[in-house]
Amino acid sequence: VSATLTNADVAGYAVRLGDDALVLSQRLASWCSKAPEIEEDLALANIVLDLLGQARTLLSYAGEREGRGRDEDALAYLRQEHEFANVLLVELDNGDFAVTIARQLLFSTYQLALYERLVESTDETLAGVAGKAVKEVAYHRDHATLWTLRLGDGTDVSRARMQAALERVWPYAGELFDADELSARVSAAGVGVDPAGLRPGWDAYVDRVIGEATLARPQTDWHPSGGRRGVHTEGFGYLIAELQHLQRTFPGASW
Amino acid sequence: VVSAPAELERLREIVAAVPDPEIPVLTIEDLGVLRDLTGSADEGVIVTITPTYSGCPAMDVIRADVLGALRAQGVERAQVKTVLSPAWSSDWISDEGRRKLREYGIAPPARPCGASPVTQLTQLSVCCPRCGSFETREVSRFGSTACKAHHVCNACHEPFDYFKPL
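^ inputs. structure came back:
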């Protein structure tokens, strides 16, 4: 079935999935020691580890299929900003805790639905990553859901901030479901998942949580995108600079 | 020769006894992390392991410890392969492993985990590994390592780790 796909297609698709996980893990890691309570330091750091583990396998595999001798480190530390293919949502500033939780709710709901389907991939490695990650991400979505309920259906202040947080990140959710030529090719071959097909299930879950949390679904037509093509937000350059600083300064440094 | 069945069985027992670096009362066999050990004249010994969580930081240490244990037996030609599939489940922890966990002060995971680990985490009361009371409550669903949640016992008031269903 996948005979119509090139190695570059599979590598490009694995990079998208891997970059989403890598960039979100880098963003979330900066909460460590600064979260509202120590349990949240631990919770977010644990989520970071899961995402980083997924990213390592996905980027290693991308390097292998690409066939240019790049490993996971070369892809994470030595690519330029415009070569990253993550969605804009995962690179947004952490904001306050509510913004981080809103981003977690939108992203983990998407990622769980994605992995639930990717388990069926005809590509053994991608199916393996998904099969491993699907239960981890179920915990991530649960974490974001519980906090959305507590903050939304909490005090006047927490409710206002949770609503403002949803308004902040909401427009960026649209890009998660954008299809393009690559996503069409990999999903037609049974290797990848059609992102547009994930939208109805995502809407149903997120709407239910928002409703239970006494929040309102943001109304907006703004649909920022570009991450999959390497066009990123201003904050992304700073994120990459920090992520890559050590390897750029001391090439080849290892522990 | 390392490919002889009796020798492979002996080496498997050696490797099976390697402790988990984060929960040292458990061996990698108790945990279900050790999947296979094979050997051939061409490739030497091949040990297959699987991570509990995608990002489990203990895997590098386990890999090194497995190679070290084999080296101590004079086996120099060995490699450790990591596989993701089939995905590890907390259901794979042996009965012996569950007993050791409880004695160590960690509540073993509810089982079977099934397809919905979060539901398992929330629906069953967890037994305090110190006093045996079921009057316990969750403090945080994410604990000291990726595989554990943080609980406290209402009866004896001691905090404890709960190995999460996965």
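Residues 38-66 of chain A form the longest helix (29 residues). Chain A touches chain B at residues 39, 42-43, 46-54, 56-57, 124-125, 127-129, 131-136, 138-139, 142-143, 146 (CB under 8 Å).
thumbs up if we can close this ticket
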